Amino acid sequence: MSGGGERPELGQVPETALWTLWHRAVEARRPDTVLSDPKAVELVERIDYPFAARFGENALVSQLQALRAACFDREVADFLTRSPRGTVVGLGDGLETQAWRVDNGRASWLSVDLPETVALRRRLLPPDERHRIVAHSATDPGWMDEVDPSNGVLISTEGLLMYLRPQEVRALIAACAERFPGGAMVLDAVPRWFSRRAVEGKLRDRYYQAPPMPFGMDADERGELATAHPGVTDVREVYPEGGRWPVSALLPFARRIKQRPSVVALLFAES
To answer: For residues 33 and 30, what is the distance between their CA atoms, to the nearest angstrom?
Structure first.
């Protein structure tokens, strides 16, 4: 599977948008896929990039990435059930295609990312009245001015926080809790050992060198996120579901491992 047409020029961290897109597309092409994502398949076919040569083809990695995305999808879908005209903010959104998987036809979507990634997203996924794109660093609170909180807000940070420093993660959570009372946030984290190896440059295979990941959090440490701000009123892990054998059989046992990746949902107190 290699694309043709759009030629992306991205730095090391923004390039991870292509890595996650590729693995979603690889999984979505399977007849027994755990994540239906035809838009990801379409984008891979439109992009002139050596996906397979750069990232390899690993069915297990693709399935795990899709299961992670499905965790975020469930949280967003639940939010839109409660707040059908709410706003979903994708921080570090890259080429995420979640809006094409769970949109209800009434919600507002705001993608926030660095200028080079936003330029590519605008060409491939042009904005419209309900799907807006803003060039901003997630750590710069200026993006918050683009959010209408009147119908509810959910902030999604899939595949972002691990590339920030721990103090930046806490500051971002605090700023969101302060600015969007009654809102929610969904995030994912890599375990501490994984973060250390990435920072040391030891996360690589014959295809790909992962960027440094300064923020790591073991799954049993998620409660500490509540200390980022008094407005964080609930911290809950979102567990992956389904999967093909043997992943489906192993997932219940994986929950017992403290040093594993995790997806976490936060709720913010009403004002």
So the answer is: 5
